[in-house]
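Quiz preparation item.
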């Protein structure tokens, strides 16, 4: 690594976080600055954030060049992080400033380090001892030299703040100012791990060796739900930390439950840094700085934690690696799983991709030798895999507006009678997907989008799932003006909740859907409440399929397994397979045996049969064969192009122009499909037109795309976005 330093007055070039796709020259300020330093620079009338990118170009007249206004008191950006940002930008075709914004998303990064008041034990005894005083002092005596904020101290010793201030006045407790951005408590690496089973031990040994090698590598850790994948990768984390390196665990945001953090705390005696959208501003600022100084050994976070300025990253775990939420779809479009691999390869770190149902991409990367694979086949302890069966809905004569079949109802009753929990899965938010006028057939749609409004009875409104717009529920048809004939059509989780409450009047029914909880924290609390027995029947969307441990849950009912099989998404089969296996895996995680019942109108469908048979390898091979034949990912490359704008003619003109001038693409043998209106042809008033590019595996797709799209001049508010390796096709 070079340690370039630029003396005062030297020309430097700065990458700012402003939407300008090049660096700008400035003069180094008084005291000079380091390569990578975070700085504030004047830009027009404003002051903006930037990073020293290198020596100035000298393309401008020296006297006209302005001087850097401030150098921030934080660790300069390491070259390896910059390399990562540059490679990620090139891969995802994202302008560098947007990439830099991801890496500087620490609130008040630019503030000077602030301080806070802390308390610790001084000498002496109080003139008068009370019970409350004794509690504080006992607590502090036990804590040695540690300091606490007033809030922590009053909480831990269960006293009011006046008790503490009383002791401060007498000099029994010392009050000091210390920096707010405190290092994270260090992890205790001497605590014992659980006694691993032979299979787990073997996997842990191999992972540990891989981490200790100090080389880049990726391991797919495949193991059925409950097989102890977490226990195994905790050992890899311990190894990385023993070697003085930092570790990062990425979780699908919503799986960041207290349960996982408690496990970390039990294993290492301290809390990790927790990076996600629910973390407070002060906490984010603290994490960003401490990670940069190596004073946070373990980070648990959502996908954006990849862009933190690690001092010495040695391991990245991507838990539930198949999860679609790793793909960020707006703003910078990237897949956190793939970026984790790139990030690790820059710093010779190891990657663990953990899943019970790996993505076909990762499975294929094992087949072609890029990744190593480790398998855990047995569930830990007594727990056995649930038995999965179908209910053939063609034989169930269900009355109108009912979705729980008699067969499922009987099984649910049997479980409720022995006081076990039941989960019903339906991947549809809200009360009903369609609201229709029984008099004229009119369906309520969103004004801004080409989508139906979904009734949410819980919040007494109609909601568009594309743009989030809401309207109050209506009595009168907007089209024929008949009153009182608006009717819900089809089921959503809320409606299923009503049905369950009627069928099982004595059971506590809880509906779990992301839109029903205002904050991630509220949702987490609800999940914990359910896990400790706060519900008999849990009804939910996709959300409940993810990694939660409900020990008393023994039956899972899938209301409509056919939902995911419709549509033309190339991953429909893979997704349904993963989702069904994940949902089924929620049953019987503790000592009791679980079962899963899948309601379907097509029990003969190959995907449904594969789910029942549990022949995973066979499913992957068949799926891989089909994709290879079709030349689609992971055996070919794809890019989705979306042109959008308020003027539909302009948008189509631009798309047609691109479709006609494909020289740059034919040179790499790529094919273009479209233009066609996107499946959701309008969002927030913007018309959307799609083009799809398909290319062979080894071609330079990105540079061809850049050359291709640069031909088009976008008019008005038209915009073009490119999604490399698209996951969804809406
Ligand atoms: P996975 O991550 O594969 O779903 P977990 O690591 O969460 O599996 O393990 C499932 C449950 O079994 C957890 O409660 C875990 O603590 C427990 N468990 C797994 N392996 C062991 C072990 N060797 N000793 C004790 N408990 C274990
Ligand atoms: Zn809308």
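Solution:
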């Amino acid at each position: 690594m070079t340690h370039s330093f630029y003396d005062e007055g030297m020309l430097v070039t700065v990458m700012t976080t402003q939407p300008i796709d090049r660096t700008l020259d400035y003069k180094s300020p008084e005291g000079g600055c380091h390569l990578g330093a975070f700085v504030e620079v004047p830009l027009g009338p404003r002051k903006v954030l930037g990073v020293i990118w290198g020596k100035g170009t000298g393309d401008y007249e020296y006297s006209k060049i302005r001087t850097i206004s401030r150098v921030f008191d934080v660790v300069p950006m390491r070259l390896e992080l910059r390399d990562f940002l540059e490679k990620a930008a090139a891969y995802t075709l994202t302008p560098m400033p947007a990439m830099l914004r991801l890496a500087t998303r620490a609130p008040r990064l630019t503030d000077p380090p602030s301080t806070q008041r802390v308390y610790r034990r001084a000498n002496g005894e109080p003139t008068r001892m009370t019970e409350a005083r004794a509690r504080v002092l006992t607590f502090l005596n036990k804590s040695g030299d540690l300091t606490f904020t007033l809030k922590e101290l009053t909480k831990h010793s269960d006293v009011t703040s006046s008790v503490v201030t009383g002791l401060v006045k007498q000099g029994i407790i010392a009050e000091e100012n210390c920096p707010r951005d405190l290092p994270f408590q260090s992890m205790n690496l001497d605590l014992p791990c659980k006694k691993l089973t032979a299979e787990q031990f073997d996997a842990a040994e191999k992972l540990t060796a891989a981490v200790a090698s100090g080389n880049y590598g990726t391991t797919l850790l495949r193991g059925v739900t409950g097989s102890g994948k977490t226990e195994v990768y905790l050992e890899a984390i311990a190894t990385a930390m023993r070697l003085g390196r930092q570790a990062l665990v990425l979780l699908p945001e919503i799986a960041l439950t207290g349960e996982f953090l408690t496990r970390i705390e039990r294993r290492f005696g301290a809390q990790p840094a927790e990076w996600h959208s629910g973390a407070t501003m002060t906490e984010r600022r603290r994490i960003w700085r401490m990670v940069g100084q190596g004073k946070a050994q373990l980070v648990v976070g959502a996908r954006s934690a990849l862009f933190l300025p690690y001092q010495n990253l040695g391991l990245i775990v991507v838990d539930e690696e198949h999860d679609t939420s790793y793909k960020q779809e707006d703003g910078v479009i990237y897949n956190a799983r793939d970026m984790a691999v790139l990030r690790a390869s820059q710093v010779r770190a190891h990657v663990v991709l953990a899943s019970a149902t790996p993505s076909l991409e990762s499975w294929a990367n094992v087949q072609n030798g890029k990744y190593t694979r480790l398998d855990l086949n047995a569930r830990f302890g007594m727990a056995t895999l649930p038995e999965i069966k179908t209910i053939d809905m063609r034989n169930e004569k269900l009355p109108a507006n009912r979705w729980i079949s008699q067969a499922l109802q009987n099984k649910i009753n049997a479980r409720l009678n022995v006081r076990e929990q039941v989960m019903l899965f339906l991947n549809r938010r809200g009360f009903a997907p369609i609201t229709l006028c029984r008099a004229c057939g009119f369906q309520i749609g969103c004004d801004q989008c080409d989508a139906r409004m979904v009734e949410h009875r819980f919040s007494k409104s109609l909601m568009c799932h594309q743009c989030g717009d809401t309207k109050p529920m209506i009595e009168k048809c907007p089209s024929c003006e008949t009153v009182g004939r608006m009717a819900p059509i089809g089921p959503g989780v809320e409606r299923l909740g009503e049905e369950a409450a009627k069928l099982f009047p004595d059971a506590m029914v809880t509906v779990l859907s992301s839109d029903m909880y205002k904050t991630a924290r509220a949702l987490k609390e609800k999940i914990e409440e359910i896990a400790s027995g706060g519900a008999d029947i849990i009804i939910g969307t996709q959300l409940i399929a993810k990694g939660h441990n409900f020990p008393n849950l023994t039956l899972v009912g899938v209301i409509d397994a056919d939902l995911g099989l419709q549509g033309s998404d190339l991953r429909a089969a893979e997704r349904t397979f993963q989702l069904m296996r994940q949902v089924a895996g929620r049953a019987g995680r503790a000592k009791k045996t679980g079962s899963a019942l899948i309601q379907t109108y097509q029990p003969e469908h190959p995907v449904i049969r594969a789910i029942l048979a549990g022949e995973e390898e066979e499913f992957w091979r068949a799926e891989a064969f089909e994709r290879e034949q079709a030349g689609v990912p992971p055996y070919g490359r794809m890019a989705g192009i979306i042109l959008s704008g308020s003027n539909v003619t302009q948008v189509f003109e631009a798309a047609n122009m691109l479709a006609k001038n494909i020289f740059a693409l034919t040179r790499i043998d790529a094919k273009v499909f479209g233009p066609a209106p996107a499946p959701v042809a309008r969002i927030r008033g913007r018309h959307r037109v799609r083009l799809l590019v398909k290319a062979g595996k080894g071609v330079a797709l990105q540079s061809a795309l850049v050359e291709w799209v640069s031909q088009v001049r976008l008019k008005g508010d038209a915009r073009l976005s490119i999604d490399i390796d698209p996951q969804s096709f809406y």
